[in-house]
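Input record (Table S2, row 190):
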Amino acid sequence: MDRRGFANLSLKTGIVAAIAAAIPGIATLRGRAKTAGSKSPEPGDRLVFALGQNAGQPVTEGSFTQNEAVLAFPEGKSDNHDNLVLVCRLNPALLAAPTSLDGVVRGVVAYSAICTHLGCTVRFSEEPMDMAPFPHIHCPCHAALFDPHRGAVVLGGPAPRPLPQLPVRLNERGEVVADGNFAAPVGVVT
Ligand code: FES
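Output record (FE2/S2 (inorganic) cluster complex):
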């Protein structure tokens, strides 16, 4: 199965959630201590798939279609779990502040995948629901909801602040790369 096929399958059927639940360190993040001394994203870091048979391979513009997302790490920096990001491809016309549009390319926008409540790994869903009748990000632990079109602001649940955005761009090979560090501290801030 190619990357696009994996993205379609995993996100439309919820297999990402099942895989995440099966992999230690992806699902059991609640209350996890931050990794001291590990590297943060830097401009030019390629984002690579965090899960599945494509793990470690670069995420490209063609890896997913609109209203899909994948979990990824900056290449070589997966030892710092705070680097886990949800790379979403959304309708560019719907993206608005507080999303930093300078850090978005062709509808591809990345946010920390670490919930700001207690640190669980968040998930993407294109299924509309009452509080989010559009593709959204949710946390399976205590039902926090975030709007990826508007800076991952909190729509509901106990999360105290948005998911920090990681600015991205495409390199000359069409690969999604970081264009800086996270816009705010990742995860639980005490
Ligand atoms: S850890 Fe995400 S809502 Fe509690």
